[in-house]
Each structure stands twice: as C-alpha cells, then as structure tokens.
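Usage

Read records sequentially. Each one opens with the input sequence:
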Amino acid sequence: MTDLRFEVLDVTAEPYAAAPQLKVRLGLSEWTESRIHAIALRCQVRIEPQRRPYDEAEQNGLRALFGDRDRWKDTLRTFLWMHSNTTVQGFTGTTEIDLPLPCTYDFDVIGSRYLHALGQGEVPLVFMFSGTIFTRGIQGFGVEQVPWDREAHHAMPVSVWRQMMDFYYPNTGWLRLDHDAMGELADYRARHGLTSWEETVGHLLARREEPSTAVST
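and closes with the structure output:
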C-alpha cells in the first residue's frame, strides 16, 4: 500500500498559454519507497476566505458576495474555485510536477469576483487530491486510489493573480452579457454616436449619477 503526500511548492502566472492560466508546482512524496508507475491525478481547488483579514476597500468589494461585515461570521465559508487534472509520470521516492489551473475573468464566476475585490495580501487556497495510482502488483500492474484525505494548503499572493490577468487582459476587465442586453447596449451606442464600449458604459454611468435626469435607452 502506497503512502502518497502532496506539497504546494509555488504558484506562478503562466504567460504563454492560450487563455489565462496559473501553474502550480507540486511536490509529491511516496513514503514507503514503492515504485509509482503513473498517477491519474485530480485536484479540487477551494478558496478559504475566512482565513485572511480584509481592509475597508476589500470589504466594500466583497459585500455583493458575503453581505455586510456583521454577517461574515455566517457567510464567509470555503467555496469551490475550480477542478484540474494531470498525469504524473513514474517515480520512486519524490518528484515534482506542474499542475495547470485554467482561470477566467468572467464576473459570473464567484472566484473571479472574489479575487478582483482583493487589493493585496494572500489568497488562502486548499488543494484536495484524488485519482488513481498505478503501481507494480503481484501480477503486472496494481491499482490504488489516492486517499480522500490528501490535501495541501497554500497562501497565494494576490499579486500572482493580478500578474496573470495583466498578461491576458492588460488594464481591462471582462463581462458576459446575454444577446438581448448586448443588443440594447449596441443600439444605445449607435444612437448616441459613441466610439467604444468603454465610452458607452461610461456614458450610461454618468447619466445615472445625474440626480434629476431619467436615463433613456
């Protein structure tokens, strides 16, 4: 029976992927010195927001997710960020691998909204591992499951997330709209002779802030 342990060594921004991606450097150790032929590794990555402090600006940014500050003792709970998987090649003793974490800047995803609201500090992450271990058995290969309790904690600097998004969306953000809303926004832009989507949204926001003027679409 194998005894597999995991350690998160580092998390970095991957600058050359097709889409935003973080790269997790994982250390694996097998304490019985059994020969591992391969591992089909799965990982669930969760954010633990209750494990860090927040300044006033961050609290305001997180109000839509967790409510007012006096409710956080009930609402600030660990939540799922993403799933990832990879294949680990054979080793004996210890090895290191890269685990890709494909990310999105879609603000309909709770993880993106949470990370966008953070100004500095670290993001408390927990990596929960599962999968299939292939070893040498009595007759050919043996198969075991990664124990359900295998996990590793890591405090990722917020700056790593921001660096990754700067690689792919420099000085910009990203919003998803349904077809009807996009059509209305395009019509508003055309009717007011606006030259960009940023100018269109800015025009709408400025009109809404006028105290006695109704917004016309």
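Summary fields computed downstream for this record:
- The chain has two domains: 4-168, 179-209.
- The two ends are 67 Å apart (CA to CA).
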